[in-house]
Specification:
Blueprint: H1 3-30, H2 38-45, H3 48-62, H4 68-76, H5 82-103, H6 111-134, H7 149-173, H8 193-196, H9 224-229, H10 233-236, H11 238-265, E1 269-270, E2 273-274, H12 282-305, H13 312-335
Antiparallel strand pairs: 1-2
Helix pairs in contact: 1-3, 1-6, 1-7, 1-13, 2-7, 3-5, 5-6, 6-7, 7-11, 7-13, 11-12, 12-13
Length: about 350
């Protein structure tokens, strides 16, 4: 596989699933919330961050198609081609999520209609990840047609996606829209966002306190009295702790499956040689993925353990570490392109 193609596909499979899962997790936080709260408005508007990440991946992947006519040909295969299904699902997600994001700037759209549309958009996010996970099940490519690849794609998405969702929350919480937009736990002073911010409705406790937060994603109000008083710092960190736990558990499960895939590769060969001969450094790449992703999680976890909202640069660093680790795995994966014959 050419270097330019592998880079384009690497960018797509790193950015698109992360953006989709981040959007899905953020939707779970937004759906139960009062749409008129300042926090909800800020978070709705910062949904542009995961959308931009996903769009970057889609644009990068389009570069290997060559000409616009090839893109149209890919779209015409929807329903019978895994590649076409992947592209259509990406476009459907970006369209649905993009329209919801635009609607967040209007107060004329009924709240119920907006929430229904958000729920549908979040489902297209899962559809996109599902299509990406199965597109490499090609019988003639020994190294890709593995039962480990689809779950690995899902798990890496759930490593980076929650970190990107946390970064989006951090950027939203540290953005002040002024007194007119204040709501439950709003940040009234950008410099003190870590002390007064709260994505979670009042009553949501950090996961370390036993998960006493609201049910259904940890982002709903559980105590009306405290809602009126405003959220505390501890109330703010519940959903962030849950997302961080999802990322960590996905990393552990992903590392196990990658190790099993690496073992499987040792038994694959064709007339030209062994699979691992194509990328003898693949084992080192897997170790780098675990180290980088773990570092990203640790960077974000440190302020959370101290009951503080991460700073923007901290959250960004965590996401970048995860992206670099997953990109390393993807580069190795595409380097292992080996067919049954020659």
């Amino acid at each position: 596989m050419g270097t330019d193609i592998s880079i384009a596909l690497t960018m797509f499979t790193v950015f698109a699933p992360a953006g989709a899962i981040a959007f899905f997790l953020l939707a779970l936080c937004i759906l139960p919330r009062d749409a008129h709260l300042g926090q909800t408005k800020r978070l709705n508007r910062w949904l542009i961050l995961p959308l931009a990440v996903c769009m970057t991946g889609l644009v990068a992947s389009a570069t290997h198609l060559g000409t616009p006519s090839n893109a149209l040909y890919v779209l015409s295969g929807w329903g019978r081609s895994p590649l076409s299904n992947e592209v259509v699902s990406a476009l459907a997600f970006l369209l649905a999520a993009g329209l919801y994001w635009l609607s967040a700037f209007s107060d004329r759209i009924p709240v119920l209609a907006s929430k229904v549309w958000l729920a549908l958009a979040s489902l297209t996010a899962l559809w996109l990840v599902a299509m990406i996970s199965i597109v490499y099940a090609i019988p003639t490519i020994l190294t890709w047609n593995s039962p480990y690849i689809p779950p690995i794609m899902w798990l890496t998405a759930f490593v980076s996606g929650p970190l990107l969702a946390i970064a989006t929350i951090v950027f939203a919480e540290r953005t002040d829209l002024g007194p007119a937009h204040e709501g439950l736990g709003d940040v009234k002073e950008p410099g003190r966002a870590g002390e007064g911010a709260g994505l979670a409705a009042a009553g949501a406790r950090a996961a370390a306190d036993g998960g006493r937060g609201g049910a259904g994603g940890g982002c709903t109000a559980a105590d009306g009295g405290r809602a009126a008083a405003g959220g505390t710092r501890e109330d703010s960190l519940g959903p962030l702790g849950v997302m961080l736990a999802i990322s960590l558990l996905s990393l552990v499960a992903g590392a196990v499956l990658l190790a099993l895939q690496y073992k499987e590769l040792g038994s694959l060969e064709n007339a030209l040689g062994a699979a691992l001969g194509l990328a003898p450094w693949y084992g080192a790449v897997l170790a780098a993925f675990v180290a980088l992703a773990a570092a990203g999680i640790a960077v974000v976890a440190t302020p959370l353990f101290k009951r503080r909202l991460p700073r923007r640069r901290t959250a960004t660093l965590g996401v970048l570490c995860a992206f670099l680790g997953i990109a390393a795995v993807r580069v190795g994966f595409y380097s292992l392109h080996m067919t049954i014959g020659l």
